[in-house]
Amino acid sequence: MRIQVVLCAAVLLAPLWNKSASADEVGLANGDRYSGTVLTLSSGTLAFDTGHGRVDLPWPNVTALTVEAPIVVTVDGGGRQTVSRLETIDGWVTIGDSMTVPLAAVVSLARPQNPFKVSGGASAGILATGGNTAVNSVRVDADLVARVWENRYTARSTVNRSKDRGVETARDASAEIRYDRFLTRTVFANASALFTSDVFRDLDLRTNLGIGLGKQFADNARAKLSLEGGFGYVSEHYAALLEPDRSYSALREASSLEVYFGAKRITLFHRNDAFLSLSENTQTQFGTTALRNTNVQTHNGVRLGLGLGLVMTLQYDLDYVRSPAAGRKATDRRSGLTFGYRF
Question: Which of 176, 270, 331, 334 has the fewest CB atoms nearer than 10 Å to its CB?
């Protein structure tokens, strides 16, 4: 019986022991010790995640260090290399198979970066009613983001359809492709193309093209924020023969924000693209019109993680055009509840 109790206790405590054994450790000259994860060593400061938050430790105060996972080490005068484990003994650390240097000779530490990262997901929402009401609607959307070294590629698409008693009341679709080239760790050059079609706005196809610069202000476990600015070109083709097609050059502003709560179980998100005409004149096939045009699209919502990659998303979209087709409203709003999968 005693052996069974010991075995059960060992099974229950094994995950905790493994977690502790695999943690990095840092010791300071004043006797303080931290257990957690080494993030980076840069400009004389060691960034360390304790599991309860990040602490920045002056590197000259560090007297002992143990890193249990692969890490990129740069030694003063000794180059850079990736090692599977790092441990100091009496203030000295062995780098690779043969190099042993004082801990103070280590000038930077960094976690190896995966050259290829991909994320995205797809979701759908369907509503069908019968009896006194007969409404059928569907919303399908998908997105994919791939990062390869300094290059980031993004693709998104959305389709909305709705019928009320057999009469179509909504039919629109959009698709977006983007390319970001990171010039520094946070600054990137950007090119984008956004295509929109909406039958009930008489819009056969709107094409928004943009180029410019952006800055990634945050990209971590708590938030992701980027802002962009540059120049754009907008071309609008309408289905009605009497509605003139339009095109204009524009200033472009875009932003993207995600805020995470509860280890990303709850995500608040916002995206927008805005194009403001550079002149009072908008080109048409019949000449020019003296009207400064503006086009703004926003996407806002909250995403709830249900486990195993499954999510529920409540989203509100807005599409504003200062000069819509004749007889159409300037602002379109859409809201929907969808279920899907993210990876």
Answer: 331
